[in-house]
């Protein structure tokens, strides 16, 4: 009798593959990490949201609310951002270990080719995950992010050239805090133009532990992922804030992005959101939501 029931259950799983994936996910063990926190809600295809520097998963909540009933969303928070405990992010690298933990989460929770949506530093982390997992990722959206931020100022600049300025930013943040950082770096002769505005802009949004903010800032300015783009098999969408003002650097972003993402195996799709700056989903929520719906659809 027991053997018969076991065979019947197995047969049901074979007949109902959609149910199999959902049941398999629900039976996955609880995920624990000393690097990231993940809040999961809803049912349906998987969408993983990765916030930018100084932001928690709450930055994506209004976007996630509009996906209720259609998708299962996973809101990632890097420990140390906002009011979260810093955990293992108290020392050492930040983005690479966070990406590895998101990859472990995807495997252990049995996500089915999830869509990844990352903002700023979170966009870079999404690119890392997509390059590592390849076919296990369904699609990627990066929001006001680049494989190498300084290339938005000068495509010829190298990580080695920008490292002294990044180190200066790290030290200034540790010494003065995020509120005074930009002014202090500028006073000491550092200017990264639009790339600096994009990287610095998120620091004061939700804040966090100075150690993890400083490390995230340093990595956002020095890590160059352009060669890793060759490993990404999922389609990539790049969403960015744009203006009609021809004197504003944002007016010229698409050309810079096309060059920066040129190593992708298939060309990226570029979506500009007029009237938005770096915090695209906050500056223009309705237009951004339309872009997300089209991306997921």
Structure description:
The chain is an alpha/beta fold. It folds into 2 domains: about 1-30, no CATH class; about 30-295, Rossmann fold (3-Layer(aba) Sandwich). It is built from 13 helices and 7 strands. Strands 1-3-2-4-5-6-7 form a 7-stranded mixed sheet, sandwiched between helices. Helix 5 links the parallel strand 4 (about 115-120) and strand 5. The longest helix is centred in the middle third of the chain and has 18 residues, at about 160-175. Residues about 1-20 have low confidence and may be disordered.
User: What is the CA–CA distance across the termini?
Assistant: 46 Å
Query: What is the CATH architecture assignment of the largest domain?
Result: 3-Layer(aba) Sandwich
Task: State the CATH topology of the largest domain.
Answer: Rossmann fold
DSSP strand content: 5-15%
Q: What summary fits the major beta sheet?
A: 7 strands, mixed
Globally, the shape reads globular
SSE arrangement, N to C? HHEEHEHEHEHHHHHEHEHH
Annotation field: number of helices = 13
Order of strands across the main sheet: 1-3-2-4-5-6-7
Name the poorly predicted regions: 1-21
Rg estimate, integer Å: 20 Å
Mean of all residue-level pLDDT scores: 86
Please write the CATH class name of the largest domain.
Answer: Alpha Beta
How many beta strands in the DSSP annotation? 7
């Amino acid at each position: 009798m027991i053997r018969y029931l076991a065979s019947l259950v197995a047969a049901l799983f074979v007949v109902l593959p959609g149910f199999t994936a959902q049941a398999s996910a629900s039976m996955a063990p609880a995920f624990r990490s000393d690097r990231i926190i993940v809040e999961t809600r809803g049912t349906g295809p998987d969408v993983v949201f990765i916030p930018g520097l100084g932001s928690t998963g709450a930055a994506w909540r209004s976007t996630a609310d509009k996906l209720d009933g259609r998708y299962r969303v996973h809101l990632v928070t890097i420990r140390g951002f906002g009011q979260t405990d810093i955990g293992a992010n108290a020392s050492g690298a930040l983005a690479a270990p966070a990406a590895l933990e998101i990859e472990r989460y995807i495997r252990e929770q049995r996500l089915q080719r999830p869509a990844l949506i990352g903002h700023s530093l979170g966009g870079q982390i999404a690119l890392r995950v997509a390059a590592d997992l390849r076919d296990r990722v369904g699609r990627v959206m990066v929001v006001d992010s680049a494989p190498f931020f300084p290339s938005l100022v000068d495509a010829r600049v190298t990580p080695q050239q920008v490292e002294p300025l990044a180190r200066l930013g790290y030290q200034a943040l540790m010494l003065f805090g995020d509120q005074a950082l930009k002014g202090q770096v500028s006073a000491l002769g550092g200017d990264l133009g639009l790339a600096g505005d994009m990287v610095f802009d998120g620091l004061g949004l939700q804040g966090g532990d100075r150690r993890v903010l400083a490390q995230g800032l340093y990595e956002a300015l020095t890590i160059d992922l352009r060669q890793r783009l060759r490993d990404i098999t999922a389609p990539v969408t790049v969403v960015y804030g744009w203006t009609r003002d021809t004197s504003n650097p944002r007016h010229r972003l698409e050309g810079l992005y096309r060059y920066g993402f040129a190593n992708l195996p298939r060309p990226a799709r570029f979506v500009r959101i007029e009237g938005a700056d770096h915090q695209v989903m906050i500056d223009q929520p309705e237009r951004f939501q339309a872009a997300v719906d089209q991306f997921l659809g």
